[in-house]
Fold:
Amino acid sequence: MQALRRLSGLASIGLVLCVGGSAAWSAEPGIAPDKIKIGMFGPLTGPVSLWGYPINNGAIAVYNHVNATGGIYGRKIEVVDEDDACDPAKAVAAVKKLIVREDVFAIHGGTCSATVMAAKDDIIEAKMPYVVMAATLDKISSPVNKYIYTTTMPGSGDGSVMARFVASMPQVKTIAIVKHSDEWADTKADAFSAALDKKIKVVATEQIDRKVTDAVSQAVRIKQLNPDVVIAFTYPAETAVLLRDARKYGLTVPFVATTSVMDLADLSQRAGGVDVVKQVYAASFLASPPGSSASAKWDEIYKASFPNDKLQTLSFFGMSGALLVVDALRRAGPDLTREKFIQALETTKDLDAGPAYCKISITPENHQGCTQGTVWSFVDGKVVPVGATWIEPKQ
Amino acid sequence: MSELLTLIAAGLEVGSLYALMALGLVLIYRTQSIVNFAHGELLMAGAFVGYVAFQPMSWPFPVALVLAVLSSTLLGVAVERVVIRPLVNHPHATLAMATVGVSVAVRGAARLPFGSDILTFPPIISAAPVFIGSLVISAQTVLTIVLAVSISVAVFLLIWKTRLGREIRATQQNYLGAKVVGINTGKIYSSSWAVASAIGGAAGVLAAPLTLLYPDMGATFLLKGFAAAVLGGFGNPLGAIVGGIAIGILEKLVGAYFSTYLIEISPYVIIIVVVFVRPQGLFGRGQIVRV
Structure:
């Protein structure tokens, strides 16, 4: 009888080990023989949903394209898209849902920097591989954390691209800076100042507040100082106000602006026409605007999934991150685990970033995959990339 | 010197809009002792109606202006009849909170058709600015100042030269006395809101080419209008006009000659200084209490 008990005890332990072992083998979250579950979050409701949909849709379009061309080792990517309304509390809830209830393999999401910062601790605690969708705050991915990666050009990168371009402009000895008073502008402005050619003198730093009614004082002050170039660390609406009043009060020097106004066609509508923005040079992390011959492949991929959407620069924002995820999934091999995926992410080198300007390179010491950008401007009434440094316009 | 004149012209342009905002606030305050926190939304409603008429519909500006004024007037009267009138005997704080509620609701309603994106209202007159040395004056600036002054004069004539104006003043001075002599005080309340809202709508359509259009645009003008009313003496229409123009010019001069970092805080500083130094404002009378 005692022997029988011992036998049944051993059998029970064996059964537990067997079942447990098998569960452990198949329990890599979000992985099934035929699919890989990727979580996504972003502003799908509220005022910022205007950006949220095209950005997330760009990434979804890339995943759909990969699925349509055979998937990854026979597995299709399944996207679970959650709304954060650009609200930190909702973002935390969305990320927790993706981790706990949806049991996703990795997360690719986050357009608003504040929401990503709010959800960051939960992502790290869950040891969840995470690729930023479009948020730009440097603090998200620096200092390095094992689980967090980005292909979005961080704010500091924006400032460096602008500084490099300004230094290459002919005859530029003095500049005036106009900026908002917030972390977004400060990060870019600090990186700009650090990278700026020391021979160029900053003659004024003016503040422009959010939702201003006009920028008369800024325009008049800067005009009096007569700088060679004005540098604007401003959001699109305030940039439009600044440009409109600059023109009105005879401030006709070139403006160099951040990636926030890289959709120069939109800026021209806000500011009152192409004439008002024809001297604006905007930093861009995309190689070419949508609708151009250089971006045709990515235009088609987006349109294949979202034929009724308007194609805009935002449509491309999430694509480079999706390409990084896909590449890392492939390099991680058919026996996919999070560890292998993270290892693949950390060894990404010179990956084609699709519509983005950069080549994505990530190392264990640097998880900001894209820090290079170019500059766009209006030429002959069309928005075109004019290069990361000044090229004399053709006569 | 010409920079100074340019700044004064720009200050007059924006200041005349602050003056219209302050005038509307003062009219309602004098009649019902309510600080109307929804007054910015009356401006916003006028601006958006004017935008729809002037831009997508391509109607002439005078038509857009009239439609903007009418729509804000209707909105203001509706707010008074539906929200304020039933609460008229409640404490002032309740009435003020009711207007805060209206403000949030109107902004929310505006987001349904217009979203939260920022729209641009083109200049009413597209003529290039005139440069006289460094002095810059645009036709838009002149038009805004002329229309704002005309509207202010019309409101003063209405208040001081018409029967309705006398009844409004009588109700403002002594509510019970006005009732006793047969004035329909309900009608006076609605009329005051109608006039104040019409001014708000006109200010909206004049402000639209100067600034950008978005559902929250009224908040900025409300704050400046409030500062103007406090500076002029809350309750004094002439003070509201002077206060608005003074704040408009002051913020331009402070921004250009001191620091652009001080532009947006200047209205708050003005409110605080006036409350400490001369609580009744420039044109207000000190409160005398019979003991």
